[in-house]
What we know:
The complex is a heterodimer of chains A (about 60) and B (about 475).
Chain A: H1 10-20, H2 23-32, H3 43-58
Helix pairs in contact in A: 1-2
Chain B: E1 10-12, E2 22-27, E3 30-35, H1 37-48, H2 51-57, E4 64-66, H3 76-80, E5 83-87, H4 101-120, E6 123-125, E7 133-136, E8 139-142, E9 148-150, H5 158-175, H6 180-185, H7 192-198, H8 209-222, H9 227-236, H10 241-257, H11 270-273, H12 278-295, E10 299-303, H13 309-315, E11 320-325, H14 328-341, E12 346-350, E13 378-381, H15 385-391, H16 396-405, E14 409-415, H17 420-426, H18 439-449, E15 450-457, E16 463-470
Parallel strand pairs in B: 10-11, 10-13, 11-12, 13-14
Antiparallel strand pairs in B: 1-2, 2-3, 3-5, 4-5, 6-9, 7-8, 14-16, 15-16
Helix pairs in contact in B: 4-5, 4-10, 7-8, 12-13, 16-18
Amino acid sequence: MRTLAYLDAGSGSLIASAIVAGFAGIAVVFKTGFRRIGMLFSPKRRREAKEAKLAAATDDG
Amino acid sequence: MTANESTAGFRDEPASFRDPASSVFYSNGRVLRGLSERGAADWARLADSQFFPRLVAERKAVTTTVVEPGSLAGDEPWARYEVVLEHERIPFVSYPYEWTFEMLRDAAALHLEILLAALDGGMTMKDGYAFNVQWRGSAPMFIDIGSFEPGGGPWVGYRQFCQTFLYPLLLEAHLGVPFQRFLLGHLDGIEPGDMRRLFGGRRRFKKGVFRNVYLHSVIQDRVTRSTQSVQQDLKKAGFSTELTKATAKKLLKLVRSLRSKRSGSNWAEYRDTCSYSDAEREVKARFVLDAAKARQPALVWDLGCNDGAFARLAAEHAGYVVAVDADDVVVDRLYRSLRDDGPTNVLPLVMNLVDSSPGRGWRNRERRPFTDRGAPDLILGLALVHHLAIAANVPLAEVVAWLRSFDCAVVVEFVAPEDPMAERLLANKPPGLHDDYRPDTFERLLEDAFIVERREDLPGRTRTLYLATPRT
């Protein structure tokens, strides 16, 4: 069931935990830059992320 | 001697293998923890801190002492570990899928309080796992000393905390769905993506859901970088310990505000609607009290405990009482009354006896079946047999064989088919299905497996109590 086993889903959780901290946490997330942490909300970026995860998940290695 | 037991009698805890810095093992009933070099360094820091001794003194963290080499039956552990610690024993191990809503909520609050104390003391915790909390009666206690490590930055245990504490609580608080089955079915807890699907549409705006579930899941789907690089980026961008504290405080406030949506239950009003008379109740109470007083049992299991009235009585003469019932709402009420007024030696648990907790996790050994976690000296089975035999269709012979399998004294009640409560159960069943459900059948089966030490009819004449000890 864990199709994303090669990608530690903890990275997204870290960002979410920063957002839970409130305004200051959200500011820090903005400061890191969405491009840098690999999170952009454009449809193109979303598609790319999906493909990257799929590629990692289907990699037999 | 089992496969994982050494010649000197050291036995590894099957659930303690994930963290190479810290593993639990047993020797002659003592609970020990071996630490690697890194684990030992973290322990030195923890033992030196101001917050940890305070948590131990407040009984919020497990009592822990250093074991000197030469004081165990063998020196083997010191060949494997840098430092060996000893923990106090937990009277009866239980798992979050056996806890009630309030129990999980109190355990979650305790975990966050401990995280906040650690952050104040310049340390953090590397997980947020509900299984790291255990109970002494109705008091939660944090047991995983290996969780503490120096450092700051965002809390890496946040995800685990969500999955095993927060999401189960949100599920019951907002949707009224009992969480236990979700934790039993998946020891890692509920995934953010699954929660997001359960909280679709306007539900995502319910308290605590938007950030902890919706955004959490959305972000998780989009982030492709590794955890370590994201952690570094956040630190570089100025993510301080203060921010982690803010996260923990927000979570604590949220957790404390949650209330179970489940209130009505089949059994919650049992005492008010059941057919007992006060006279019957009194006879029953005296019977239980006499049995406990005469035997002074170290461990009592009250199976089908309902409101826990008899568990409380037994607790007056017992070391520890584990009170089990399938109805989470009734057990939750019992937990709250124990937490507020005691006694302190009763552990309430939610479990359906015809579908009791199995072995779970790696090789089915990480989380043990309920019946493997202790050997009771006395079992109370009051108003239980008719539920097993009629409602759950377990043959009477099976019920008696099951009671006998615990190899201890039992106080068991048989409710005749004419009793209003038995009649109600029988009314749901096709005629003829329970023709063998008769007092004489039960008594014969009981006498084959046990020696009946005492037998007493209750004043209403439809119920009989037995005190029986195993026939060898």
